[in-house]
């Protein structure tokens, strides 16, 4: 029989929740692997929002996503997790004779006794703004992803959207930009405090019922035409940058074929254990759903702890579900390491 390098748990997703799951799994003594389709750890925070402030993690009044990710990666790998990046999970097969799973990606086969899915929203693509000229000027003033705020310094910036991302970008951009205009077709859906800060800021607000009618320019974006859909009123704004923040189209992709219970692109779990319907397969973070679910980093890391602890008991029914305070766990782990040496 072929000998495989079998891990105790494999975490699908290297975002904030997956990284904390890896850290905590290592604390509990599990041989741990992380698989992520992106080329670097950090998930959507580093791929889409590196310059965006995060407000919902304990210990930080606010922290830039890239700075938070730096600490999360350091913590996540500190207990021995092995990252496998640029790999997309494709299939999961239980091998009854071996007593573990074969997890196949687009690059390799991985072998694991348990799985913790922390895939966020799955694969995601920004929703495109459909208006004349928008596609023509993508990469020439029109952008869906903000990698650096400095690119907006001293520019006239128009932002489209009404959720947390659009409001946060408006608040972040206006101190650097020459002018900032936010356009939205409905009421704002961001956190109440952020919306109040927006109204108190110098950002020009055009809502509700305002939409982009057309974007124009030559070699680079030069102006954005906005109209009020009920009255037909039009405004032409000078613009060297248009940030489109109208959401993402998410898809769980191959995970939908694994036999998991899926509701509205989320995996149904038991919130007491974070177990899915597959033995030894758990999930945590934005990828899951259950009654009363909140999609926050803070709640996601708590779910990761629950998932890891129940994975430990799944592997060894005699193990303690609650390992106790982290200080005690790490001291025990360090003593074990010293003894092994």
From TrEMBL:
Domain of life of the organism encoding this protein: Bacteria
Cofactor(s) required, per the database record: FAD
Entry similarity comment: Belongs to the ferredoxin--NADP reductase type 2 family.
Cofactor binding mode and count: Binds 1 FAD per subunit.
Subunit structure, interactors included: Homodimer.
Family annotation (Pfam families): Pyr_redox_2
Enzyme superclass (EC): oxidoreductase
Source organism (scientific name): Thermomicrobium roseum
This protein's name: Ferredoxin--NADP reductase
Annotated Gene3D superfamilies: FAD/NAD(P)-binding domain
